[in-house]
Write a structure and sequence with these properties.
124 residues, mainly alpha, 5 helices, globular
């Protein structure tokens, strides 16, 4: 049985409740990965190929591809995804405190719900 990437979103929502820095950082990261996989699956269904996309890494390539599309919903998905990726990178690789971490997690979860809605409308 395939892994349900939505489990990352559910985990992030549970982690947010603890208020501990490590849990909140992990919530930022898992929320991002839910959106990344949701978006990548949609993009691959619609002509996206990591091999031919511009950019350095697979994540940057996906968001650049989204932002380069004419559909404003895809552009917004790319903008939000890239923003979420930067927060995830900060949470995963920067040991300095993240100001307003709990609020950042709440905003990250809200962006994830926005992205999910965008993908849903793109599929209609």
């Amino acid at each position: 049985m395939e892994f349900d990437w939505r489990e990352y979103l559910r985990l992030a929502e549970r982690l947010r409740q603890s208020g501990e820095e490590a849990a909140l950082r992990t919530a930022l990261s898992r929320t991002y990965y839910w959106v990344y996989h949701l978006s990548r699956l949609y993009a691959e269904e619609n002509s996206y190929s990591e091999r031919t996309a511009p950019g350095r890494g697979s994540h940057e390539k996906l968001w650049k591809w989204c932002e380069a599309q004419s559909d404003l919903r895809l552009k917004k998905l790319g903008f939000n995804g890239n923003r979420m990726r930067k927060l995830r990178n900060n949470a995963d690789y920067n040991s300095m405190p993240i100001g307003g971490l709990g609020d950042e997690v709440s905003r990250q979860l809200q962006r994830a719900r926005e992205c999910e809605k965008l993908v849903r409308t793109l599929r209609e």
